[in-house]
Amino acid sequence: MGSKFTRRRFLKALGAGATYLALTNAVGCALPSISPAPRERVWDFRSRPDLSPAAIEVTTTQAHDDTAPGYIFAALKEGTGDYGPMIIDDLGQLVWYGEYASARDFKMQYYRGRPVLTWWEGRVIQGHGIGEYVIFDGSYREIARVRAGNGFRGDLHEFLITPQDTALLTAYVPRRADLSPIGGPEYGQVWDGIAQEVDIETGRVLFEWHSLEHVGIEESYAKQPDNPEHLYDYFHINSIDVDHDDNLIVSSRNTWTVYKLERNSGDVLWRLGGKNSDFEMGQGTQSAFQHDARRHEDGTITIFDNGARPKVHEQSRGIVIELDEKRMRATLRCEYTSPQKLLTTSQGNVQLLPNANVFIGWGSAPFISEYSYDGKLLFDAHFPPDCESYRAFRFPWKGHPTDAPAVAAEPGTEGRVTVYASWNGATEVATWEVLAGPLPGQLESVRSVPRDGFETVMSVRSSDPYVAVQAKNHLGRVLGASAPLKL
What we know:
By secondary structure, this protein is mostly beta strands. The chain has one helix at 7-14; strands spanning 26-27, 57-61, 71-76, 84-88, 94-97, 104-111, 114-125, 128-136, 142-146, 154-161, 166-177, 188-199, 205-210, 237-242, 248-252, 257-261, 268-272, 280-281, 291-295, 301-305, 317-324, 329-336, 349-352, 358-361, 367-371, 377-382, 389-395, 406-411, 416-422, 431-437, 444-450, 455-461, 466-472, 478-481, 485-486. Strands 2-26-25-24-23 form a five-stranded antiparallel β-sheet, with no helix packed on it. Strands 18-22-21-20-19 form a five-stranded mixed β-sheet, with no helix packed on it. Strands 30, 31, 33, 34 and 35 form a five-stranded antiparallel β-sheet that branches. A hairpin with a 4-residue loop joins strand 10 and strand 11 (166-177). It is elongated, with a radius of gyration of 25 Å.
């Protein structure tokens, strides 16, 4: 082949400053990744030219035993490349990409006892969603579609499946309200934040809560809009969770408050933070414009504290708050900040992982981080600067696509053929086997190569006109095969 052309030399030749993992390795023959160079940090696969999401750069990673098991889940909604939900491994390699441009809140949940993929899709108007919720099975097939009830349209901020196979979701509706207590018109227009529980199978509404019926306008820290066509978003509901006593935990961005709601009556049982907190707020416990309040088995609450728009804190953070509900005191147990000192103006989440690590999606800042519980940064990665993912998560996942593996091939010199193999969403492929032959029905194995990222590049020696690939698991069982490809 002449001189050895490594990935590093190839990237250097491209003038790439950061090693975006948007290229695939060649195996066995020291070939470069011959896939076309990334267009402005965008994946570009020879076997799947229809997939062009933004690539991710992993800048910090510890030993595999330190980070929690599982893949990274994100859904880019703007910026470089195509938009949609994606699953990524710890090396930044794409595992699955779905071409659903409006997807938000992409994650793994359980429905009917089985792991599923879920997200919201629809339109966004003035920061609120108008759409519905999608459930996919392990073969990436839609098995359910959930809609808000009582004539409302599902908002993007929350879709949480409960163990009873009901869905907790958010919605917004315009209402008239008296804004004179805060210097506004007596008949002002506001957004009413709605929390709703819906039976997934039947669509029946089991619970519905309206912020205007329980939370006064004067609790808000939000500035009234200058544009008279914009409604006052005084509350801005952005997460719902289930407490250990089956009541609900709701986060309001614009009142800087986490509310505990009685699940039957909707009465506010307590307020954490804000202007009317029922807890004595210890140092560092008050959030501002926060997102994603989650209650945990030990009684703590995690919150993504944006602290911005307008700026309140110097940087955004993930926080763990310990609640003493007898003395009604809140104490800061842990705080997680980014080495980049990010100030995230919107979105974001904190996920407490099964091994006690803490995973953070930085929302409007295109970063994803994982920390040990005591605050050591274990994993840090980022998308191109103009990209955003509403939330980001880490989950275990096994995917079994129903379509066939994809293959592309290019004849070379001296009887060599470069073969490109991929299978979008397949998580159990250990090796790729290249087959070649004179006819589509007369193919024989010419080489077996370990899987190497989303697209594996293989060099084989063959003069036959047809090639195909087979995907095998670690036991050597064939999981799927491509159609024969004529060179």
